[in-house]
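Weekly puzzle thread! Below is a chain. First person to post its structure in token form gets bragging rights.
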Amino acid sequence: MTEQEHLLANMETFTLTGTGEAPHASNYGVTLQACAGDELTLPICKDDEVDFHIADLYLDGEIIALVNFTYDEYIGTDCKYYRDCTGETFFFKLIEGNVKLR
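Winning reply:
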């Protein structure tokens, strides 16, 4: 188990599932726009510092998902992205800007 997998396994998390359509919001200040069946898992954060952040997730040079988040506390958190069409799972730190999964 990698360090990121271990951290996520020991934290309270939530998962958003892509629909292939318009993004849908969560109760935790995060939205996901991705292919149907793709999943984003990240820790629950609640922060008083609210701003607007966007992360573009790239796989092999192609954008596969957009993550919008409003709490500054999410920056640098460990996340997991599951790509349904390939069965691959990627672990990464959430940043504002471009995230290269591979």
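Puzzle host: Confirmed. Bonus trivia for everyone else. Residues 39 and 64 are 12 Å apart (CA to CA).
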